[in-house]
Amino acid sequence: MKSAAILSAVLLAAPAESQTITLECAPRDGVIAMLSNDYGEIRRAIGIAGESAVMELYASNEAGTWTVTLTLPDGQTCLVMSGSDFSTTIGRLPANL
Questions:
Q1: Where would I find the H helices in 1-97?
Q2: In the Cβ-directed half-sphere of 30, how many Cα atoms lie within 13 Å?
Q3: Which of 7, 23, 49, 61 could serve as 55's disulfide partner, Cβ 3.0–4.6 Å?
Q4: Residue 96, φ and ψ in degrees, nearest 5
């Protein structure tokens, strides 16, 4: 699994008062190429995070993998989290899901 999954596990296991977050970042072109070539993921969603970062969701219908990235003003793209069992939905989900 991708290294972002390790980040998620570390964040869940670390006590809140002593958390140190280290994201894996690299130039955007390289990150996007890796997601496409290694995992077959394509961009599915995009949004503005804060005042100057861009959040993107990449996913693969075939493999079911997904990755959330954050691109910073300096052009570095960071892996925030990733997972499996990706599926798209049509319409609204019930409030209790």
A1: 3-13, 28-39
A2: 9
A3: 49
A4: -90, 10
